[in-house]
Design brief:
The protein is 35% helix and 19% strand. Strands 1, 2, 3, 4, 5 and 6 form a six-stranded parallel β-sheet that branches. Strands 12-9-16-7-8-13 form a six-stranded antiparallel β-sheet, covered by helices on one side. Strands 19-18-17-20-21 form a five-stranded parallel β-sheet. A hairpin with a 2-residue loop joins strand 14 and strand 15. The protein is α/β, with parallel strands linked by helices.
Length: 608
């Protein structure tokens, strides 16, 4: 927000002072100020200023006023929805509201009928599906037992990825369903792309201010700042830590057609804490060669200043494209934003509704260089074009070590992505940066991404079954290190798969040592290219069906990590088959059994 002196009740000096003050305030400071102004009859315009993603600390305490209540629910696969939900809960608490915040997997949906205010933050997973911890909630809402919500006020924030066809589908469906059930939408649904922070914080601010407007006035004497939460680290997603690379080792043998990097990063001085199952987010940079190629096609000057955020901060164009903007993934919204700038007749035709299948095929495997070559020239300035691009999203990698074993380090397992498509060689933005451009002594900007949906059981005696082909094995290295440090006695079973035993047996020495020490009870491997018939982890599961079912009946927790589109689906099907056959259940009963395991957090997936 930028105040202007025209028709303003402020003097020019006051306007200048406010314009210096407002951009630097946090969301809590603005909401606190809003509460103060409402308590003194002031104008709430100040509270509608922009918001940062540092939502910690100030709250106007309410006295002798009715306590308003709200329920905040989140459905999250990687932890982003949970983080935003917690931000909203803190902001509403600061407004003096009584907040219930829960994962959808822990919430009893029949209680929705008695809720006054409902705020939902949910991601969309796979091909327009709800995340694992939201499946039961989602099915209840769309089932016959769902009550009317005529006395409920609500709003939905949806997280997704514009590069997917069913962008934010789950949030859109819930938003529409709540309205059909009679609920009143108090703030319009917001759909967030992978660079969700600014839009999510705008939504948090809108909801918090809307609730504040409905609240009784805050007495002036009651306005006292109180601490809501403590920040464990000064570094976060919005302020990443520059972690030094201590080791960068290729785990594959010389004969492999893969390159899997084991990275050891120093987090000394970061204040980061993490648990097995958490991930590290890395903010990557685009390959300079690709950026230069793109700018040459567009005939842009490298030093031209462009804005990089809503606050109006600027950088030279080349630096901005390297560090801040996505140029390797095409999305339908991007094409829609740029169609007015091209002289090509083919792009409008591609965006016609009946051409959707053709469009999806075009988007697959192409980047911004392909697009501007295919549909240029574009009659638009560099600042305008860059304004249509989305931010480079961080890449998440499962942490492969226990902090108990390595207090000031995080270990990552990164598979370098390289392939040929559409007559050009392609490379993964982050994975190849790690493999080729960041050796020991270099640094990477990182943050810790908590994931409460992928956790070791609280009882160290509980058996665990871990399924993880390729780099999906990374979190299990942290699981076993943690169990070793804690001297956990529960049984553990690992199913690991890759292409070749000799060249692709990731962390082989670690598994063998843990097998020898008893930290790892059993291990079954599947090397798909070493036999005439391709054998995968799901085949090994079926071979050991009787024993696996016995472990499940003993209360074992099953973990699956890795590729969602193929491996995770095949493993899911194999699990249902094993339970059906060994437990002598009908298919529908076995599927219900697996859903119950998910509800009880005995079947957890970290898939992508």
């Amino acid at each position: 927000m930028h105040l202007k002196s025209t028709n303003s009740p402020f003097t020019d000096e006051q306007v200048e002072w406010l314009n210096q003050l407002l951009p630097g305030l946090t969301v809590e400071q603005k909401l606190w100020l809003s509460g103060y102004l409402s308590g003194t009859g002031g104008n709430s315009e100040v509270a509608r200023a922009g918001v940062t993603d540092e939502p910690h600390a100030l709250a106007p305490e309410r006295q002798d006023t009715p306590v308003q209540t709200a329920t905040v629910l989140y459905g999250s696969q990687t932890g982003n929805s949970q983080s935003v939900a917690e931000t909203l809960a803190r902001a509403l608490t600061n407004n003096g509201m009584e907040i219930t915040i829960q994962s959808m997997s822990d919430y009893k949906p029949k209680e929705l009928k008695s809720v006054e205010r409902l705020f939902v933050v949910i991601s969309t997973h796979g091909e327009g599906e709800p995340p694992d911890n939201a499946i039961s909630f989602y099915e209840y809402v769309f089932g016959r037992k769902m009550p009317k919500l005529t006395d409920v006020k609500f709003s939905v924030l949806s997280l997704g990825d514009e590069s997917y066809e069913f962008y934010c589908q789950t949030g859109k469906e819930l938003d529409r369903k709540f309205e059909e059930l009679g609920a009143e939408r108090v703030v319009a649904r917001v759909d967030c792309d992978v660079d969700f922070e600014e839009d999510a914080n705008d939504w948090v601010e809108q909801v918090a201010i809307k609730m504040l407007e409905e609240s009784p006035a805050v007495p002036t004497s009651a306005v006292e700042p109180i601490a809501v939460t403590e920040q464990s680290s000064t570094y976060s997603r919005s302020k990443p830590f520059q972690a030094e690379v201590l080791e960068n080792i290729n785990l594959n043998g010389r004969g492999s057609n893969k390159e899997t990097r084991h990275l050891e990063l120093s987090i000394d001085g970061s204040g980061f804490t993490f648990s097995p199952g958490d991930s590290i987010g890395i903010f990557p940079e685009n390959d300079e060669t690709l950026v230069d190629h793109f700018m040459t096609i567009m005939a842009w000057e490298a030093n031209q200043e462009v804005e990089i955020n809503k606050k109006g901060d600027t950088l030279p164009l080349r630096e901005a494209l390297i560090r801040h903007f996505e140029i390797t993934v095409l999305t339908k919204p991007l094409l829609q934003k740029t169609v007015a700038w091209t002289e090509s007749d083919a792009l409008p035709q591609l965006l016609e509704a009946e051409q959707n299948d053709v469009l999806q095929a075009y988007l697959e495997g192409r980047d911004l260089v392909d697009f501007v070559q295919d549909y240029g020239p574009f009659t638009v300035s560099a600042p305008e074009f860059v304004g249509a691009l989305r931010k480079i999203p961080p890449r998440l990698y499962s942490i492969a070590n226990s902090q108990l074993a390595n207090e000031d380090e995080v270990h990552l397992t990164v598979s370098a992505v390289r392939y040929d498509a559409h007559d050009r060689s392609r490379a993964g933005v982050c994975s190849v940066q790690c493999a080729e451009r960041t050796g020991a002594g270099g640094s990477l900007p990182i943050f810790v991404q908590k994931n409460d949906n992928f956790r070791l059981p609280e009882d160290p005696e509980t058996p665990i079954i871990m399924v993880g082909p390729g780099t999906g094995v990374a979190p299990y290295r942290s699981f076993l290190e943690e169990r070793e440090e804690r001297d956990a006695k529960g049984k553990s079973w690992l199913f690991f798969g890759d292409q070749h035993f000799v060249d692709d047996f990731l962390y082989q020495l670690d598994w063998q040592r843990w097998l020898g020490d008893g930290v790892l009870t059993k291990m079954d491997v599947a090397f798909s290219r070493d036999t005439s018939e391709k054998i995968y982890v799901q085949h090994r599961m079926r071979e050991k069906a009787k024993e696996m079912y016995a472990w499940i009946e003993e209360g074992a927790v099953i973990y699956v990590c890795g590729d969602e589109k193929q491996m995770a689906q095949d493993v899911h099907t194999a699990l249902i088959d094993i339970i059906s056959e060994q437990g002598r259940f009908e298919r529908a009963e076995a599927e219900s059994y697996v859903k119950q395991m998910q509800q009880e957090k005995r079947y957890q997936r970290d898939v992508y």
